[in-house]
Amino acid sequence: MLSDCLSGLRVLDLSMYIPGPLATMWLSDLGAEVVKVEGPLGDPMRVMGPVDADGTTAFYKLANRNKTVVALDLKSAGGKAAFAGLLEKADVLLDGFRPGVLARLGFGDERLVGLNPRLITCRLSGYGGTGPFAERAGHDVTYLAAAGMLAASGPAERPVMTFPPLADHAGAMLAVNAILAALLRRATTGKGAVIDVSLSEAALSWMGGVLTMAERWGTPGREADLINGGAAHYRIYRTRDGRFAAIAALEEKFWRSFCTAVERPDWIARQADPLPQTAMIAELEALFASKTLAEWTTLLEPADCTFEPVLDPSEVADHPHHRARGFVRRAADGIIDVALPMLMDGQRVRDRRPLVERGAEAVLADWR
């Protein structure tokens, strides 16, 4: 069973907002037991955005499913003692503080190793634990700015912010990969590890091709890039009813299929026009504006031309492909949850449960 892969693994989650909680939730999907430690004021994500009737946001509930939440004041003697007890029995600690904060609270590397030499500590911060930006404040848009990703994205008029936040999610995925790698190493060496993962560098890791192009040929205008708005056959177009359609006909066979479906064989040879394909883009804009999205879907879906309607988020859960795959789930508490999107031997992870709040003493009793 996929959900038993990490059975018996104990994870302490000392993070807030999105990246760390997502990472530990994905570990819990694989069977890990996750205890999220929050300060007296709780995770700010509890109230950041629209709140449900219970005073808590859906975003907080989503990112912290499957977990036990424990309130501890790590500035107090009692809180420090309880946290030390949990560390002694844990396998993984995810530290979402800025670099140096946990050490100032009395839990630096030497103390952690003394408490538990097998502990895998993953530090997940904005810019990493070293360098001039180590203690710099930031959020997703500034992490992407420092990685060069904002300058490379969006139309010529201005960069485009991503939603959901890209660096946060990329960082969460990278943290999971690093933790799993450290667990594999520990299985053969018996040693723990200290991992340093940066949200900005998680985005930066996707940028090698862009950086290479910029160094070799200079930074072109975004409107001249093949897959960033410069090509007519790889764009998003507005339809007559104000919806949007996406076309991604990079290969000649798909472009030919599209041109045949729209009865414009004269366009086939124009796929390789110099970038930006301004004239061709204008012609496709006029074409797509002539029909509704539903009409385009009826015409182009059978053509196998890499066309997709741009779905509104409210349409995604009931999309026939997503229903068939079974990863989008409506939970009893009204949350629309997206399960870990992977199958192992044809099996999905179990449904996630809502978070449970417990006292540190009760968790320590279970872990003894």
UniProtKB/TrEMBL annotation:
<dbReference type="InterPro" id="IPR050509">
    <property type="entry name" value="CoA-transferase_III"/>
</dbReference>
<dbReference type="GO" id="GO:0003824">
    <property type="term" value="F:catalytic activity"/>
</dbReference>
<dbReference type="InterPro" id="IPR023606">
    <property type="entry name" value="CoA-Trfase_III_dom_1_sf"/>
</dbReference>
<dbReference type="Pfam" id="PF02515">
    <property type="entry name" value="CoA_transf_3"/>
</dbReference>
<dbReference type="InterPro" id="IPR003673">
    <property type="entry name" value="CoA-Trfase_fam_III"/>
</dbReference>
<protein>
    <submittedName>
        <fullName>Carnitine dehydratase</fullName>
    </submittedName>
</protein>
<dbReference type="InterPro" id="IPR044855">
    <property type="entry name" value="CoA-Trfase_III_dom3_sf"/>
</dbReference>
